[in-house]
Amino acid sequence: PALSLSRHDLVEAFKEDGTRTTAGRRSRGLRHALVVAEIALCLLMLVGAGLLIQTFMKLRAVDPGFNAENVLTARMSLQGARYGTSENINRFYSLGLDRIRQIPGIDSAAVVNAIPMEFGLNMNFDFVDTKDVVETDLMDWRYASPEYFDTLGVRVVTGRGLLPSDRAGSPRVTVISEAFARRYFKDRNPLGRQLTVFSADGPIEIVGVVKDLREQGLTGPVPPVMYVPVAQASDAEIRTSHTYFQSHWVIRASSITPDLTRRIREELRALDPQQPVTSIRSMNENKARAMATETFQATLLTAFASVGLLLAAAGIYGLIAYSVAQRTREFGIRLALGATRGRILLTVLRQGGLLAAGGIVVGILAALVLRHTLQSFVVDLATIDVVTVAAVATLLLVVALLASLVPALRAVRLNPVAALRE
After folding, report:
1. Beta pairing partners, 75
2. Cβ atoms of residues 193 and 185 within 8 Å
3. Which of 28, 74, 143, 194 would bridge with 233, disulfide CB 3.0–4.6 Å?
């Protein structure tokens, strides 16, 4: 408005309306352009919010590969010399699992160095028999106690899982994930094949394949994973893992209650008063944390889109109301000459609809230009989803018409005689 007044042309103002000053056609054009831009930005935000909400719903429906119901996880940081050897850590775990299993309501318990949906330790490995097998590569290395797969309800696809007989001194074994088998063995049988992680520790035989778990979050490809019995993990592997990752007690209960959580914390504190439990969470809470980024993005963009929608509605309402006020005499003359009130209503609504249509077209074009940016926020969705764009466009058009309705009804109710006297 200030810029419009600074360039005010009195001659043009008197030409446009002999009884009031106006900002002229250029000012009207600027106001129209701003409203169109506002609608276009609102469409972008609403489309983005719609895609992120769909992404959020897809992530909630992703099968993590295990049964998360009534499963608790307790974290501990086991760095330092006290738990730096396989012997010490296995004694600690054995005593802790015995204490936890004695708590009423506990069905099973296990330990693992990294729970599903969180990154594990990347390790290099070599195949002992390199014939017909791919070259050395990285995989996700995890140690676990024999009860781990049963506690999480993970299905063994072929071979066997980890057993209590897989102790220190026994032949070293590992269970691999389906992704590991697909990537490195394709259609060949992986059972009986041998690999090494630390060459000094000797070969490890593959004895089973388990269903893929979402070991590195709910998005992206599933990594190849190998699970080794914690009793057979070497000192070097133990120290390397504990340097970068916390260890976890994984506990399945008949039901999760605050009293049960308190009892677990007390038993672990009694096991070693100098070793704190950093957190106890349900597996469903861990899943929610794995979706935290997508949840935040969807919430934030939905909030911005909602505010944008309100502002777009206010902008259209203000512009149409101002236009009706400017055209009061015109509408009065039309009514006096026999124009129907329905015709006046459609004229005003059409103005709001055209503004919305212009903003929708500009917004769709902007979405096409920015589709690569949108791609980084969505999971398994087309960045220009036709249904989402159509729904958002319809919503904006309806909002524009509703925002135009009040000024339109004001124009319809005009008294032609009073309007001509103004």
Report:
1. 248, 279
2. yes
3. 143
Tokens 């009130």 — which residue? 341
User: What's the average model confidence in pLDDT over 84-96?
Assistant: 92
Burial class (CB in 10 A: 0-12, 13-18, 19+), 412: middle
* 24 to 13, 136, 182: CA distances (angstroms): 7, 74, 70
Q: Which residues contact 282 (CB under 8 A, 6 or more apart)?
A: 68, 70, 71, 72, 73, 256
pLDDT score, position 138: 74
Residue type, 242: H
Give the span between the Cα atoms of 132 and 136, in whole angstroms.
13
Distance CA 100, CA 86 (A): 21
Chain mean position to CA 407: 41
Using DSSP's 3-state secondary structure scheme, residue 112 falls into: strand
Using alpha carbons, list the distances in angstroms from residue 329 to 22, 122, 142, 247. Answer: 14, 77, 80, 79
C-alpha torsion sign, points 132, 134, 136, 141: negative
Residue owning tokens 């072929």: 158
Residue 236 DSSP SS3 = helix
The amino acid at residue 389 is V
Contact assessment for residue 366 and residue 384, using Cβ atoms and an 8 Å cutoff: no
Contacts of 10 (CB under 8 A, 6+ apart): 21
At 396, is the secondary structure helix, strand, or coil? helix
Termini Cα distance of the chain? 24
d(CA 241, CA 86): 12
Write out the DSSP string of 279-347.
EEEEHHHHHHHHTHHHHHHHHHHHHHHHHHHHHHHHHHHHHHHHHHHHTHHHHHHHHHTT--HHHHHHH
Whether the full predicted model's pTM is greater than 0.85, yes or no, is: no
> 362-416, pLDDT tens digit by residue?
988 888 887 777 666 666 555 667 888 888 899 889 988 888 888 888 887 777 6
- Please give the angle made by the CA atoms of 143, 148 and 154, to the nearest 5 degrees: 115
